[in-house]
Design brief:
The structure holds 2 protein chains of 2 kinds.
Chain A: H1 9-17, H2 23-35, E1 43-46, H3 48-60, E2 72-76, H4 103-110, E3 114-119, H5 153-160, E4 167-171, H6 177-183, E5 186-189, E6 209-214, H7 217-227, E7 257-261, H8 271-286, E8 290-294, H9 302-317, H10 335-346, H11 349-362, H12 367-388, E9 394-398, H13 414-418, H14 425-429, E10 434-441, E11 447-454, H15 459-473
Parallel strand pairs in A: 2-3, 2-4, 7-8, 7-9
Antiparallel strand pairs in A: 1-3, 4-6, 5-6, 5-10, 9-11, 10-11
Helix pairs in contact in A: 2-3, 5-6, 7-15, 8-15, 9-11, 9-12
Chain B: H1 5-15, H2 21-38, H3 73-77
Classes of the chains: A alpha/beta, B mainly alpha.
Chain lengths: 486, 95
Protein backbone atom coordinates (compact mmCIF):
# COMPACT_ATOMS: atom_id res chain seq x y z
CA UNK A 1 0.00 0.00 0.00
CA UNK A 2 1.15 3.54 -0.70
CA UNK A 3 2.32 5.86 2.02
CA UNK A 4 -0.45 7.14 4.34
CA UNK A 5 0.37 10.80 3.71
CA UNK A 6 -0.01 10.30 -0.05
CA UNK A 7 -3.64 9.22 0.27
CA UNK A 8 -6.39 11.70 -0.49
CA UNK A 9 -8.98 12.51 2.17
CA UNK A 10 -11.53 10.17 0.56
CA UNK A 11 -8.97 7.37 0.22
CA UNK A 12 -7.83 7.76 3.82
CA UNK A 13 -11.42 7.71 5.08
CA UNK A 14 -12.22 4.53 3.15
CA UNK A 15 -8.98 2.83 4.23
CA UNK A 16 -9.88 3.51 7.86
CA UNK A 17 -13.43 2.24 7.21
CA UNK A 18 -11.98 -0.94 5.68
CA UNK A 19 -9.72 -1.34 8.72
CA UNK A 20 -6.61 -1.22 6.57
CA UNK A 21 -5.32 1.81 8.45
CA UNK A 22 -6.05 2.76 12.06
CA UNK A 23 -6.75 6.30 13.15
CA UNK A 24 -3.59 6.09 15.26
CA UNK A 25 -1.48 5.18 12.23
CA UNK A 26 -2.96 8.02 10.17
CA UNK A 27 -2.65 10.59 12.95
CA UNK A 28 0.90 9.53 13.84
CA UNK A 29 1.97 9.82 10.20
CA UNK A 30 0.71 13.41 9.97
CA UNK A 31 2.07 14.38 13.40
CA UNK A 32 5.53 13.07 12.52
CA UNK A 33 5.57 14.87 9.18
CA UNK A 34 4.27 18.10 10.70
CA UNK A 35 7.04 17.96 13.34
CA UNK A 36 9.65 17.75 10.57
CA UNK A 37 8.13 20.68 8.69
CA UNK A 38 8.51 23.53 11.21
CA UNK A 39 10.40 25.58 8.61
CA UNK A 40 7.16 26.23 6.74
CA UNK A 41 5.67 27.91 9.86
CA UNK A 42 2.20 26.57 9.11
CA UNK A 43 1.00 25.86 12.64
CA UNK A 44 0.01 28.55 15.15
CA UNK A 45 -1.01 25.91 17.66
CA UNK A 46 -0.24 22.18 17.61
CA UNK A 47 -2.60 19.76 19.33
CA UNK A 48 -0.62 16.63 18.49
CA UNK A 49 -0.82 14.96 21.93
CA UNK A 50 -4.59 15.37 22.15
CA UNK A 51 -4.94 14.23 18.55
CA UNK A 52 -3.07 10.98 19.25
CA UNK A 53 -5.15 10.41 22.38
CA UNK A 54 -8.36 10.92 20.41
CA UNK A 55 -7.10 8.63 17.65
CA UNK A 56 -6.55 5.87 20.18
CA UNK A 57 -9.99 6.46 21.65
CA UNK A 58 -11.45 6.17 18.16
CA UNK A 59 -9.55 2.92 17.46
CA UNK A 60 -10.74 1.35 20.71
CA UNK A 61 -14.37 2.21 19.90
CA UNK A 62 -14.55 2.91 16.19
CA UNK A 63 -17.65 4.20 14.40
CA UNK A 64 -17.20 3.49 10.71
CA UNK A 65 -20.51 5.10 9.76
CA UNK A 66 -18.95 8.53 10.12
CA UNK A 67 -17.84 10.30 6.97
CA UNK A 68 -14.39 11.15 8.32
CA UNK A 69 -13.80 8.28 10.78
CA UNK A 70 -10.75 9.07 12.95
CA UNK A 71 -9.34 11.26 10.17
CA UNK A 72 -6.87 13.90 11.45
CA UNK A 73 -7.26 17.43 10.10
CA UNK A 74 -5.66 20.83 10.76
CA UNK A 75 -7.83 23.94 10.43
CA UNK A 76 -7.30 27.68 9.86
CA UNK A 77 -6.78 29.58 13.10
CA UNK A 78 -9.87 31.66 12.44
CA UNK A 79 -12.30 28.97 13.62
CA UNK A 80 -13.02 29.07 17.35
CA UNK A 81 -12.14 25.76 18.95
CA UNK A 82 -13.35 25.13 22.47
CA UNK A 83 -10.54 25.26 25.06
CA UNK A 84 -7.92 25.57 22.30
CA UNK A 85 -6.23 28.89 21.66
CA UNK A 86 -7.69 30.76 18.68
CA UNK A 87 -5.78 33.85 17.62
CA UNK A 88 -6.75 34.84 14.04
CA UNK A 89 -2.95 35.31 13.84
CA UNK A 90 -3.29 38.56 15.79
CA UNK A 91 -1.44 39.79 18.86
CA UNK A 92 -4.72 41.13 20.18
CA UNK A 93 -6.10 37.57 20.47
CA UNK A 94 -2.79 35.94 21.40
CA UNK A 95 -4.18 34.67 24.71
CA UNK A 96 -7.76 33.96 23.65
CA UNK A 97 -9.13 30.55 24.54
CA UNK A 98 -12.70 30.18 23.27
CA UNK A 99 -15.27 28.61 25.55
CA UNK A 100 -17.30 27.47 22.56
CA UNK A 101 -16.83 25.70 19.22
CA UNK A 102 -17.55 27.05 15.73
CA UNK A 103 -20.38 25.23 13.97
CA UNK A 104 -18.21 24.24 11.01
CA UNK A 105 -15.49 22.64 13.14
CA UNK A 106 -18.16 21.00 15.33
CA UNK A 107 -19.56 19.44 12.14
CA UNK A 108 -16.11 17.99 11.40
CA UNK A 109 -15.77 16.46 14.88
CA UNK A 110 -19.35 15.15 14.73
CA UNK A 111 -18.39 13.26 11.59
CA UNK A 112 -15.41 11.61 13.27
CA UNK A 113 -12.56 13.97 12.41
CA UNK A 114 -9.74 14.81 14.84
CA UNK A 115 -8.03 18.21 15.23
CA UNK A 116 -4.27 18.25 14.47
CA UNK A 117 -3.82 21.96 15.16
CA UNK A 118 -4.56 25.54 14.17
CA UNK A 119 -3.01 26.91 11.01
CA UNK A 120 -1.37 30.27 10.41
CA UNK A 121 -3.17 32.88 8.29
CA UNK A 122 -3.08 36.59 7.57
CA UNK A 123 -4.06 38.65 10.63
CA UNK A 124 -7.87 38.60 10.83
CA UNK A 125 -7.76 37.05 7.32
CA UNK A 126 -6.67 40.42 5.89
CA UNK A 127 -4.04 39.75 3.29
CA UNK A 128 -3.17 37.85 0.12
CA UNK A 129 0.25 36.47 1.04
CA UNK A 130 0.18 35.44 4.72
CA UNK A 131 2.70 38.22 5.42
CA UNK A 132 0.41 40.08 7.83
CA UNK A 133 0.37 37.29 10.46
CA UNK A 134 1.63 38.22 13.94
CA UNK A 135 3.32 34.80 13.95
CA UNK A 136 5.40 35.44 10.85
CA UNK A 137 5.36 34.46 7.21
CA UNK A 138 4.25 31.05 6.07
CA UNK A 139 6.60 29.49 3.52
CA UNK A 140 5.18 27.71 0.50
CA UNK A 141 6.40 24.14 -0.04
CA UNK A 142 6.39 24.96 -3.77
CA UNK A 143 9.63 26.92 -3.46
CA UNK A 144 11.78 28.71 -0.90
CA UNK A 145 10.93 32.39 -0.27
CA UNK A 146 7.62 31.98 -2.08
CA UNK A 147 4.36 33.12 -0.46
CA UNK A 148 1.62 30.48 -0.18
CA UNK A 149 -1.01 33.14 -0.89
CA UNK A 150 -3.53 34.31 1.64
CA UNK A 151 -5.30 34.72 3.78
CA UNK A 152 -5.59 30.91 4.24
CA UNK A 153 -1.82 30.61 3.61
CA UNK A 154 -1.02 28.23 6.47
CA UNK A 155 -3.88 26.00 5.32
CA UNK A 156 -2.67 25.97 1.70
CA UNK A 157 0.93 25.38 2.68
CA UNK A 158 0.10 22.57 5.13
CA UNK A 159 -2.15 20.93 2.56
CA UNK A 160 0.37 21.15 -0.29
CA UNK A 161 3.19 19.90 1.97
CA UNK A 162 0.97 16.98 3.04
CA UNK A 163 0.90 17.94 6.72
CA UNK A 164 -2.86 17.32 6.74
CA UNK A 165 -5.03 15.24 4.39
CA UNK A 166 -7.34 18.24 3.82
CA UNK A 167 -8.09 21.50 5.58
CA UNK A 168 -10.67 24.26 5.89
CA UNK A 169 -10.26 27.94 5.23
CA UNK A 170 -12.37 31.07 4.97
CA UNK A 171 -12.82 33.23 1.90
CA UNK A 172 -13.87 36.91 2.05
CA UNK A 173 -12.31 38.08 -1.23
CA UNK A 174 -10.39 35.03 -2.45
CA UNK A 175 -8.71 33.73 0.72
CA UNK A 176 -9.39 30.08 -0.15
CA UNK A 177 -9.15 30.15 -3.94
CA UNK A 178 -6.03 32.32 -4.36
CA UNK A 179 -3.79 30.28 -1.98
CA UNK A 180 -5.17 27.06 -3.50
CA UNK A 181 -4.19 28.37 -6.93
CA UNK A 182 -0.69 29.32 -5.67
CA UNK A 183 -0.04 25.88 -4.16
CA UNK A 184 -1.54 23.54 -6.75
CA UNK A 185 -4.49 22.52 -4.59
CA UNK A 186 -8.29 22.66 -4.82
CA UNK A 187 -10.15 25.42 -2.96
CA UNK A 188 -13.90 25.94 -2.86
CA UNK A 189 -15.78 29.00 -1.64
CA UNK A 190 -19.41 27.96 -1.13
CA UNK A 191 -22.46 30.14 -1.69
CA UNK A 192 -23.00 32.74 1.05
CA UNK A 193 -25.26 31.03 3.60
CA UNK A 194 -24.10 27.45 2.97
CA UNK A 195 -21.60 27.10 5.84
CA UNK A 196 -22.40 28.67 9.19
CA UNK A 197 -20.36 31.70 10.22
CA UNK A 198 -20.99 30.99 13.92
CA UNK A 199 -17.70 30.88 15.81
CA UNK A 200 -15.58 32.14 12.93
CA UNK A 201 -13.63 35.28 13.83
CA UNK A 202 -15.54 37.89 11.81
CA UNK A 203 -13.84 39.97 9.12
CA UNK A 204 -16.54 41.23 6.69
CA UNK A 205 -19.79 39.55 7.61
CA UNK A 206 -21.63 40.02 4.30
CA UNK A 207 -18.75 38.35 2.42
CA UNK A 208 -17.18 35.75 4.77
CA UNK A 209 -17.70 32.08 3.93
CA UNK A 210 -15.88 28.95 5.13
CA UNK A 211 -14.95 26.26 2.63
CA UNK A 212 -12.87 23.14 1.96
CA UNK A 213 -9.25 23.07 0.74
CA UNK A 214 -8.27 19.68 -0.58
CA UNK A 215 -5.96 17.68 -2.86
CA UNK A 216 -8.66 16.86 -5.38
CA UNK A 217 -12.24 17.70 -6.35
CA UNK A 218 -13.81 14.59 -4.85
CA UNK A 219 -12.35 15.50 -1.44
CA UNK A 220 -13.84 18.99 -1.75
CA UNK A 221 -17.28 17.48 -2.35
CA UNK A 222 -16.89 15.22 0.68
CA UNK A 223 -15.60 17.93 2.99
CA UNK A 224 -18.24 20.45 1.88
CA UNK A 225 -21.07 18.04 2.68
CA UNK A 226 -19.62 17.64 6.20
CA UNK A 227 -19.09 21.39 6.74
CA UNK A 228 -22.32 22.75 5.30
CA UNK A 229 -25.38 22.86 7.54
CA UNK A 230 -28.31 25.08 8.42
CA UNK A 231 -27.56 26.86 11.68
CA UNK A 232 -29.91 28.94 13.80
CA UNK A 233 -26.90 30.59 15.42
CA UNK A 234 -26.05 32.34 12.12
CA UNK A 235 -28.81 34.75 11.08
CA UNK A 236 -27.78 34.53 7.41
CA UNK A 237 -27.53 30.72 7.31
CA UNK A 238 -29.79 29.45 4.53
CA UNK A 239 -32.15 26.53 5.09
CA UNK A 240 -32.05 24.48 1.89
CA UNK A 241 -31.87 20.77 1.16
CA UNK A 242 -28.15 20.11 1.07
CA UNK A 243 -27.10 17.53 -1.54
CA UNK A 244 -24.72 14.66 -0.73
CA UNK A 245 -22.13 16.28 -2.99
CA UNK A 246 -19.65 13.37 -3.09
CA UNK A 247 -22.35 10.82 -3.88
CA UNK A 248 -23.80 12.83 -6.75
CA UNK A 249 -20.41 13.75 -8.20
CA UNK A 250 -20.46 13.08 -11.94
CA UNK A 251 -18.25 13.61 -14.96
CA UNK A 252 -21.21 14.00 -17.26
CA UNK A 253 -21.24 17.68 -18.18
CA UNK A 254 -22.34 17.18 -21.76
CA UNK A 255 -24.34 20.14 -23.05
CA UNK A 256 -23.45 22.39 -20.13
CA UNK A 257 -23.05 25.99 -21.18
CA UNK A 258 -19.88 27.65 -19.89
CA UNK A 259 -19.45 31.42 -20.08
CA UNK A 260 -16.13 33.12 -20.79
CA UNK A 261 -16.33 36.72 -19.53
CA UNK A 262 -14.37 39.04 -21.78
CA UNK A 263 -13.73 41.56 -18.97
CA UNK A 264 -11.50 39.02 -17.21
CA UNK A 265 -8.99 39.38 -20.04
CA UNK A 266 -7.32 42.17 -18.09
CA UNK A 267 -4.71 44.55 -19.37
CA UNK A 268 -1.22 43.11 -19.20
CA UNK A 269 -2.38 39.54 -18.66
CA UNK A 270 0.49 37.17 -19.32
CA UNK A 271 0.51 34.76 -22.25
CA UNK A 272 0.79 31.91 -19.79
CA UNK A 273 -2.51 32.81 -18.19
CA UNK A 274 -4.10 33.31 -21.64
CA UNK A 275 -2.94 29.85 -22.65
CA UNK A 276 -4.10 28.29 -19.40
CA UNK A 277 -7.56 29.75 -19.94
CA UNK A 278 -7.57 28.61 -23.59
CA UNK A 279 -6.57 25.08 -22.53
CA UNK A 280 -9.36 25.13 -19.97
CA UNK A 281 -11.91 25.95 -22.67
CA UNK A 282 -10.60 23.09 -24.82
CA UNK A 283 -10.83 20.61 -21.95
CA UNK A 284 -14.44 21.66 -21.42
CA UNK A 285 -15.20 21.23 -25.13
CA UNK A 286 -13.63 17.75 -24.96
CA UNK A 287 -16.09 16.97 -22.16
CA UNK A 288 -18.99 17.99 -24.38
CA UNK A 289 -19.62 21.40 -22.85
CA UNK A 290 -20.49 24.43 -24.93
CA UNK A 291 -18.35 27.57 -24.66
CA UNK A 292 -20.18 30.91 -24.83
CA UNK A 293 -18.67 34.40 -24.75
CA UNK A 294 -20.33 36.54 -22.10
CA UNK A 295 -19.92 39.98 -20.58
CA UNK A 296 -19.73 41.07 -16.94
CA UNK A 297 -19.41 44.81 -17.63
CA UNK A 298 -18.82 46.00 -14.06
CA UNK A 299 -15.92 43.62 -13.34
CA UNK A 300 -13.29 46.35 -13.07
CA UNK A 301 -15.28 48.06 -10.33
CA UNK A 302 -15.39 44.97 -8.12
CA UNK A 303 -12.05 45.52 -6.34
CA UNK A 304 -12.58 49.19 -5.44
CA UNK A 305 -16.10 48.26 -4.27
CA UNK A 306 -14.67 45.46 -2.16
CA UNK A 307 -12.11 47.81 -0.61
CA UNK A 308 -14.94 49.96 0.67
CA UNK A 309 -17.39 47.27 1.74
CA UNK A 310 -14.93 44.87 3.41
CA UNK A 311 -13.02 47.48 5.48
CA UNK A 312 -16.32 49.14 6.48
CA UNK A 313 -17.64 45.87 7.85
CA UNK A 314 -14.25 45.04 9.37
CA UNK A 315 -13.98 48.37 11.19
CA UNK A 316 -17.34 47.63 12.75
CA UNK A 317 -16.57 43.96 13.55
CA UNK A 318 -13.17 44.74 15.04
CA UNK A 319 -14.59 47.38 17.38
CA UNK A 320 -15.07 44.52 19.86
CA UNK A 321 -11.31 44.29 20.48
CA UNK A 322 -11.14 46.92 23.17
CA UNK A 323 -9.04 45.28 25.87
CA UNK A 324 -12.08 44.73 28.11
CA UNK A 325 -13.83 41.43 27.45
CA UNK A 326 -11.06 39.29 26.05
CA UNK A 327 -7.68 39.42 24.46
CA UNK A 328 -4.72 41.61 25.05
CA UNK A 329 -4.77 44.91 27.01
CA UNK A 330 -2.32 47.79 27.38
CA UNK A 331 -3.06 49.88 30.44
CA UNK A 332 -3.71 53.60 29.92
CA UNK A 333 -4.34 56.79 31.87
CA UNK A 334 -8.09 56.52 31.37
CA UNK A 335 -10.64 54.39 29.50
CA UNK A 336 -10.15 56.01 26.08
CA UNK A 337 -6.39 55.97 26.46
CA UNK A 338 -6.56 52.26 27.35
CA UNK A 339 -8.65 51.53 24.22
CA UNK A 340 -6.30 53.49 21.96
CA UNK A 341 -3.12 51.96 23.36
CA UNK A 342 -4.52 48.43 23.36
CA UNK A 343 -5.67 48.64 19.74
CA UNK A 344 -2.51 50.38 18.61
CA UNK A 345 -0.28 47.69 20.14
CA UNK A 346 -2.60 44.77 19.41
CA UNK A 347 -3.30 45.22 15.69
CA UNK A 348 -0.76 44.96 12.87
CA UNK A 349 -0.29 47.55 10.13
CA UNK A 350 -2.61 46.04 7.49
CA UNK A 351 -5.43 45.59 10.00
CA UNK A 352 -5.02 49.19 11.19
CA UNK A 353 -5.02 50.38 7.58
CA UNK A 354 -8.30 48.58 6.89
CA UNK A 355 -9.94 49.77 10.11
CA UNK A 356 -8.96 53.31 9.15
CA UNK A 357 -10.35 52.92 5.59
CA UNK A 358 -13.56 51.47 7.01
CA UNK A 359 -13.95 54.16 9.65
CA UNK A 360 -13.39 56.86 7.04
CA UNK A 361 -15.94 55.56 4.53
CA UNK A 362 -18.53 55.19 7.27
CA UNK A 363 -17.84 58.57 8.86
CA UNK A 364 -20.19 61.51 8.71
CA UNK A 365 -19.95 63.34 5.39
CA UNK A 366 -18.36 60.43 3.51
CA UNK A 367 -20.92 57.66 4.00
CA UNK A 368 -22.95 58.46 0.86
CA UNK A 369 -19.95 59.15 -1.34
CA UNK A 370 -18.20 55.90 -0.47
CA UNK A 371 -20.18 53.28 1.42
CA UNK A 372 -23.58 53.84 -0.17
CA UNK A 373 -21.95 54.22 -3.58
CA UNK A 374 -20.15 50.88 -3.10
CA UNK A 375 -23.38 49.14 -2.09
CA UNK A 376 -24.99 50.40 -5.29
CA UNK A 377 -22.11 49.20 -7.42
CA UNK A 378 -22.30 45.88 -5.59
CA UNK A 379 -25.87 45.62 -6.88
CA UNK A 380 -24.65 46.24 -10.45
CA UNK A 381 -22.02 43.53 -10.08
CA UNK A 382 -24.60 41.08 -8.81
CA UNK A 383 -26.96 42.00 -11.66
CA UNK A 384 -24.16 41.29 -14.16
CA UNK A 385 -23.94 37.73 -12.83
CA UNK A 386 -27.74 37.33 -12.77
CA UNK A 387 -27.88 38.33 -16.43
CA UNK A 388 -25.10 35.99 -17.49
CA UNK A 389 -26.59 33.07 -15.58
CA UNK A 390 -29.73 33.40 -17.72
CA UNK A 391 -27.56 32.17 -20.58
CA UNK A 392 -24.95 29.86 -19.04
CA UNK A 393 -24.64 27.20 -16.31
CA UNK A 394 -21.20 28.27 -15.08
CA UNK A 395 -18.34 30.67 -15.80
CA UNK A 396 -14.67 29.81 -16.39
CA UNK A 397 -11.90 32.29 -15.48
CA UNK A 398 -8.29 32.17 -14.32
CA UNK A 399 -8.08 32.08 -10.49
CA UNK A 400 -5.33 34.70 -10.20
CA UNK A 401 -3.55 37.10 -12.58
CA UNK A 402 -0.18 35.39 -11.92
CA UNK A 403 1.52 32.53 -10.07
CA UNK A 404 2.80 32.94 -6.50
CA UNK A 405 5.15 35.84 -5.84
CA UNK A 406 8.16 36.15 -3.56
CA UNK A 407 7.96 37.16 0.08
CA UNK A 408 8.32 40.95 0.31
CA UNK A 409 7.62 41.49 -3.38
CA UNK A 410 4.29 43.27 -2.88
CA UNK A 411 4.19 44.00 0.83
CA UNK A 412 5.08 47.70 0.48
CA UNK A 413 2.39 48.47 -2.08
CA UNK A 414 -1.13 47.79 -0.76
CA UNK A 415 -2.88 48.42 -4.10
CA UNK A 416 -0.67 45.99 -6.03
CA UNK A 417 -1.32 43.39 -3.30
CA UNK A 418 -5.08 44.02 -3.53
CA UNK A 419 -5.00 43.52 -7.34
CA UNK A 420 -4.11 39.88 -6.75
CA UNK A 421 -7.75 39.20 -5.91
CA UNK A 422 -9.14 40.71 -9.10
CA UNK A 423 -10.72 37.43 -10.33
CA UNK A 424 -11.94 36.16 -6.96
CA UNK A 425 -13.49 39.25 -5.33
CA UNK A 426 -16.53 39.62 -7.67
CA UNK A 427 -17.69 36.15 -6.59
CA UNK A 428 -17.80 37.19 -2.91
CA UNK A 429 -19.60 40.45 -3.71
CA UNK A 430 -22.29 38.44 -5.52
CA UNK A 431 -22.35 35.68 -2.86
CA UNK A 432 -21.76 32.95 -5.45
CA UNK A 433 -19.87 29.65 -5.20
CA UNK A 434 -16.45 29.41 -6.87
CA UNK A 435 -13.85 26.68 -7.05
CA UNK A 436 -10.18 26.93 -8.01
CA UNK A 437 -8.50 23.85 -9.42
CA UNK A 438 -4.83 23.41 -10.35
CA UNK A 439 -4.59 23.65 -14.13
CA UNK A 440 -0.94 24.00 -15.11
CA UNK A 441 2.51 25.39 -14.33
CA UNK A 442 4.10 28.64 -15.40
CA UNK A 443 7.61 28.82 -16.85
CA UNK A 444 9.12 28.97 -13.38
CA UNK A 445 7.36 25.71 -12.61
CA UNK A 446 4.86 27.30 -10.18
CA UNK A 447 1.20 26.18 -10.13
CA UNK A 448 -1.59 28.14 -11.82
CA UNK A 449 -5.31 27.70 -11.22
CA UNK A 450 -8.59 28.00 -13.08
CA UNK A 451 -11.77 29.13 -11.39
CA UNK A 452 -15.28 27.88 -12.06
CA UNK A 453 -18.07 30.16 -10.82
CA UNK A 454 -21.60 28.84 -10.37
CA UNK A 455 -25.12 30.00 -9.63
CA UNK A 456 -26.16 30.36 -6.01
CA UNK A 457 -26.38 26.97 -4.26
CA UNK A 458 -25.27 25.20 -7.45
CA UNK A 459 -22.11 23.76 -5.89
CA UNK A 460 -22.90 20.33 -7.31
CA UNK A 461 -22.69 21.71 -10.82
CA UNK A 462 -19.32 23.46 -10.40
CA UNK A 463 -17.96 20.41 -8.56
CA UNK A 464 -19.00 18.23 -11.51
CA UNK A 465 -17.40 20.59 -14.01
CA UNK A 466 -14.21 20.74 -11.90
CA UNK A 467 -14.26 16.93 -11.57
CA UNK A 468 -14.44 16.51 -15.35
CA UNK A 469 -11.71 19.06 -15.99
CA UNK A 470 -9.45 17.59 -13.32
CA UNK A 471 -9.39 14.36 -15.28
CA UNK A 472 -8.39 16.05 -18.52
CA UNK A 473 -5.86 18.41 -16.93
CA UNK A 474 -4.16 15.59 -15.01
CA UNK A 475 -2.17 18.13 -12.98
CA UNK A 476 1.20 16.93 -11.67
CA UNK A 477 3.57 18.80 -9.41
CA UNK A 478 6.78 17.16 -8.35
CA UNK A 479 6.91 18.12 -4.67
CA UNK A 480 10.51 18.14 -3.46
CA UNK A 481 10.73 17.94 0.30
CA UNK A 482 13.47 20.57 0.54
CA UNK A 483 12.11 22.16 3.75
CA UNK A 484 12.62 19.00 5.81
CA UNK A 485 16.36 19.66 6.04
CA UNK A 486 16.08 23.37 6.81
CA UNK B 1 -10.02 64.43 -3.00
CA UNK B 2 -6.98 63.91 -0.85
CA UNK B 3 -6.69 62.93 2.78
CA UNK B 4 -4.45 65.21 4.82
CA UNK B 5 -2.60 64.45 8.04
CA UNK B 6 -5.29 66.17 10.10
CA UNK B 7 -7.92 63.82 8.64
CA UNK B 8 -5.71 60.79 9.31
CA UNK B 9 -5.45 61.85 12.95
CA UNK B 10 -9.20 62.39 13.13
CA UNK B 11 -9.88 58.88 11.72
CA UNK B 12 -7.36 57.42 14.13
CA UNK B 13 -9.28 59.07 16.98
CA UNK B 14 -12.59 57.68 15.67
CA UNK B 15 -10.99 54.23 15.27
CA UNK B 16 -9.56 54.35 18.81
CA UNK B 17 -6.10 53.53 17.49
CA UNK B 18 -3.31 55.80 18.67
CA UNK B 19 -0.69 56.69 16.04
CA UNK B 20 2.71 58.25 16.32
CA UNK B 21 3.74 60.92 13.83
CA UNK B 22 5.70 58.51 11.64
CA UNK B 23 2.85 55.99 11.37
CA UNK B 24 0.36 58.76 10.69
CA UNK B 25 2.47 60.03 7.79
CA UNK B 26 2.85 56.53 6.35
CA UNK B 27 -0.92 56.06 6.57
CA UNK B 28 -1.49 59.40 4.88
CA UNK B 29 0.50 58.13 1.87
CA UNK B 30 -1.17 54.69 1.88
CA UNK B 31 -4.71 55.99 2.25
CA UNK B 32 -4.22 58.54 -0.52
CA UNK B 33 -3.01 55.91 -2.96
CA UNK B 34 -5.86 53.56 -1.98
CA UNK B 35 -8.54 56.24 -2.27
CA UNK B 36 -7.14 57.54 -5.55
CA UNK B 37 -7.67 54.04 -6.89
CA UNK B 38 -11.14 53.77 -5.31
CA UNK B 39 -12.23 57.04 -6.96
CA UNK B 40 -12.76 55.17 -10.26
CA UNK B 41 -16.20 54.22 -8.89
CA UNK B 42 -17.24 57.79 -9.72
CA UNK B 43 -17.21 56.86 -13.41
CA UNK B 44 -20.47 55.01 -12.76
CA UNK B 45 -23.87 56.64 -12.58
CA UNK B 46 -25.79 55.03 -9.73
CA UNK B 47 -28.61 57.48 -8.91
CA UNK B 48 -31.43 54.99 -9.38
CA UNK B 49 -29.72 51.86 -8.12
CA UNK B 50 -30.95 50.24 -4.91
CA UNK B 51 -27.99 49.67 -2.55
CA UNK B 52 -27.19 46.02 -1.80
CA UNK B 53 -26.40 45.57 1.88
CA UNK B 54 -26.66 41.82 2.18
CA UNK B 55 -26.50 39.08 -0.37
CA UNK B 56 -28.95 36.97 1.60
CA UNK B 57 -31.88 39.17 0.74
CA UNK B 58 -34.30 37.29 2.90
CA UNK B 59 -36.03 38.55 5.98
CA UNK B 60 -34.18 37.82 9.17
CA UNK B 61 -35.70 34.90 11.04
CA UNK B 62 -37.61 35.53 14.23
CA UNK B 63 -37.27 33.28 17.25
CA UNK B 64 -38.73 33.09 20.72
CA UNK B 65 -36.93 35.21 23.26
CA UNK B 66 -35.80 32.35 25.46
CA UNK B 67 -32.73 31.81 27.58
CA UNK B 68 -30.81 28.86 26.16
CA UNK B 69 -27.44 29.19 27.87
CA UNK B 70 -27.52 28.98 31.65
CA UNK B 71 -24.81 29.57 34.24
CA UNK B 72 -22.16 30.63 31.78
CA UNK B 73 -20.96 33.61 33.81
CA UNK B 74 -17.60 31.99 34.44
CA UNK B 75 -17.16 31.13 30.77
CA UNK B 76 -18.01 34.66 29.68
CA UNK B 77 -15.52 36.20 32.10
CA UNK B 78 -12.81 33.61 31.50
CA UNK B 79 -10.92 35.57 28.85
CA UNK B 80 -11.14 38.94 30.60
CA UNK B 81 -7.69 40.58 30.62
CA UNK B 82 -8.29 41.81 34.16
CA UNK B 83 -7.78 39.41 37.05
CA UNK B 84 -11.14 40.16 38.65
CA UNK B 85 -13.29 37.14 37.88
CA UNK B 86 -16.63 38.61 38.96
CA UNK B 87 -16.83 41.59 36.61
CA UNK B 88 -15.25 43.11 33.53
CA UNK B 89 -13.05 45.83 34.93
CA UNK B 90 -12.15 49.07 33.13
CA UNK B 91 -10.19 52.14 34.28
CA UNK B 92 -12.24 54.53 36.44
CA UNK B 93 -14.64 56.57 34.28
CA UNK B 94 -16.53 58.58 36.93
CA UNK B 95 -14.72 60.92 39.30
Amino acid sequence: MSNIIDLSLSELASNIKNKKISSNEATSAYVERSKKSKYLNTYNEETFETALKKANEFDSKPDFNKKLPGVPIAVKDLFCTKNIKTTASSKILNNFIPTYESTVTQNLWNDGSILLGKLNCDEFAMGSSNETSYFGNVISPIDKDLVPGGSSGGSASALAAKLTPATIGTDTGGSIRQPASFTGTVGLKPTYGSCSRYGIVAFASSLDQAGPMTRNVKDSALLLEVMSSFDNKDSTSVDFKRPIYSKDLSKDIKGKKIGIPKEYRVEGMSEEIEKLWEDGKNYLKDCGAEIIDVSLPHTKFALPTYYIVAPAEASSNLARYDGVKYGFRTEGDNLIDMYEKTRSAGFGDEVKRRIMIGTYVLSSGYYDAYYLKAQKVRRLIKNDFNNVFQKVDAILTPSTPSSAFKIGEKSNDPVSMYLNDIFTVPVNLAGLPGISIPAGLDKKGYPLGLQIIGKSFDEQNILNIAYSMEDKINFKFNLKEWWMNE
Amino acid sequence: MSIDLKTVKHISKLSRISLDEEKAKKLETDLNSIFKWIEQLNELKTENIEPLSSIAETKLRLRKDEIKSKNIREEILKNSPDENKDFFVVPKVVE
